[in-house]
């Protein structure tokens, strides 16, 4: 009897493994191996991406290890530097790059109008990459362009609006984000400059959407806020306590301090009544047309959106999260929460409002 049970159990295991192998084989399209071979024959992939070793590691480290025959050329720079350079190159007939990775607003504002991107859906042949059930609010909600085909945000990090140095200001002292207008906080706030694209502008826009234009005008004009474009400096100022409150604190910079054992005194302030948004940061991309390595670009795009690619993003990007629900959470404080409706504040549809907010900021911020 025991022998029969053992044989039956062994047969069940063999059958289960057989089904698993079949499922894994079906997970890859029939032309996947041919795509890999073609990409390896090209031998190179050129990515214009966000700045810093943290993002470089998160975006290409896993891919380079998986495909050592494909050399990845990675140029890291902020969108305000990267996008104009790419636009000038393309207008001069130079097409050096396969993929652009970075915040949506700059490429949609400057690269889309010159026809720089190819449609993404035809390139995505890996079922895992577009599995609707695995993406927050469905796969299509990640498209940032109005046509929903050119530029895709895979990042699922919520807007990091307000932080305090808890050694100086207890988080409970601020009941709502509008409390920043209290005169006792004048001269004690540092804010990433909202006069240009970035997290600082995104936070200002959310203030405007939540409390109205008159409120944000008054806040920016009268609270003696310190504005900076230096993300590391902003982080160091709140960590060291020079300024106890920070708007749009960059989580990747804070993680660098935390890894050194400092910055644990920096705490996020939450406000359930404030409009919540997904702030993709640098976590969005498009495939450039007339690219030099089309097969390598296609291979990378599919795997970037897979569990493997998004796990690397969540684990290695310095506290960012993915919109995929089946990968680890990079920053629990900035993770998408069930039951909350988030807006995508960096879609192409929001460009006019962002430009207006930048204009307002330039008008009211004291020179």
Number of domains: 2
Arrangement of strands in the largest sheet: 2-1-3-11-4
* CATH superfamily annotation of the largest domain: Periplasmic binding protein-like II
Shape: globular
**Sheet with most strands:** 5 strands, mixed
CATH architecture level-2 label of the largest domain: 3-Layer(aba) Sandwich
Structural class given helices, strands, pairing?
alpha/beta
Describe the protein.
By secondary structure, this protein is an alpha/beta fold. 40% of the residues lie in helices and 11% in strands. It folds into 2 domains: 188 residues, Periplasmic binding protein-like II (D-Maltodextrin-Binding Protein, domain 2, 3-Layer(aba) Sandwich), CATH 3.40.190; 127 residues, D-Maltodextrin-Binding Protein, domain 2. It contains 12 helices and 12 strands. The strands form 3 sheets. Strands 2-1-3-11-4 form a 5-stranded mixed β-sheet. Strands 7-6-8-5-9 form a 5-stranded mixed β-sheet. Helix 3 links the parallel strand 1 and strand 2. Helix 3 packs antiparallel against helix 11, helix 6 packs across helix 7 and helix 6 crosses helix 12. The chain is globular. The N terminus is likely disordered.
Annotate the secondary structure layout:
Blueprint: H1 2-27, H2 32-42, E1 44-49, H3 53-66, E2 71-76, H4 79-91, E3 99-101, H5 105-110, E4 152-153, E5 162-165, E6 189-192, H6 199-211, H7 213-222, E7 226-228, H8 231-240, E8 245-247, H9 251-259, E9 266-268, E10 277-278, E11 284-287, H10 294-304, H11 307-316, E12 343-344, H12 351-364
Parallel strand pairs: 1-2, 1-3, 6-7, 6-8, 10-12
Antiparallel strand pairs: 3-11, 4-11, 5-8, 5-9
Helix pairs in contact: 2-10, 3-11, 6-7, 6-12
